Amino acid sequence: LGFGDLESPAGFQMLNDYVVDKSYIEGYVPLQADVAVFESVSGGPPADLCHALCWYNHIKSYEKEKASLPGVKKALGKYGPAKVEDTTGSGATENKDDDAIHLFYLMRRKVKKQRG
Known about the structure:
This is Elongation factor 1-beta. GO terms for molecular function: guanyl-nucleotide exchange factor activity; translation elongation factor activity. The protein is an all-alpha fold. The protein is built from four helices and no strands. The radius of gyration is 19 Å and the shape is elongated. The protein starts with 8 loop residues before the first helix and ends with a helix.
């Protein structure tokens, strides 16, 4: 998942393509997902990317309510097109955590086998 770098033309283009048929990043109401992506876009998308600009202006209208919008704000790389590699670095920590958990269970299984 991810939009890539939302300060680059490619990132803005991905956001524009993603919201071409959506009003929100996830679901059918403004959520913390929209806040997370919105906060990553400083200054707004260029005017020629009309879908991204429309989404940006719509979410901007929730400025006063953004802290109370439903949902859990996740790392930016957890939102966006599924076929895009997360370049925000948000997945690296989770992979390390997953590896540690996996190692724990492997070691536990090995100890159980040794004990009989």
